[in-house]
């Protein structure tokens, strides 16, 4: 099992029925965005996530990180906060 941490840059695909998602994250050690697939329904653009999973090679889409579990934290950078606020989520304020 491996771990990746990064900022969610894009949500490429999301299935509302079963939670399966394809997301792109920016993470240290990679020049390009990393494709992550799995049950990631509650992930938002701009969020910082730590993902547990393993690398796999998809014959059609190439190298992907298959998530088995993840934890999400609130954005800690200005860029992350801007992406999070610009994601179109409704604010649930007290």
Please provide a written account of the structure.
The protein has 94 residues and is mainly β. The chain has one domain (2-73): Nucleic acid-binding proteins (OB fold (Dihydrolipoamide Acetyltransferase, E2P)). The chain has 1 helix and 5 strands. It has one helix at 78-85; strands at 2-14, 20-26, 34-39, 48-58, 62-73. Strands 1-2-3-5-4 form a 5-stranded mixed beta barrel. Strand 1 and strand 2 (20-26) form a beta hairpin. The protein is globular, with a radius of gyration of 13 Å. It starts with a strand and ends in a 9-residue tail after the last helix.
Give a short synopsis of this structure:
By secondary structure, the protein is mainly beta. The chain has one helix at residues 78-85; strands spanning 2-14, 20-26, 34-39, 48-58, 62-73.
Layout: helices, strands, pairs:
Layout: E1 2-14, E2 20-26, E3 34-39, E4 48-58, E5 62-73, H1 78-85
N- and C-termini, Cα separation: 39 Å
| Structure annotation, total helices | 1
What's the CATH H-level homologous superfamily? Nucleic acid-binding proteins
Note poorly predicted spans.
none
- CATH-defined fold name: OB fold (Dihydrolipoamide Acetyltransferase, E2P)
Identify the notable features of this structure and list them briefly.
5-stranded mixed barrel, mainly beta, 9% helix, 94 residues, single chain, OB fold (Dihydrolipoamide Acetyltransferase, E2P)
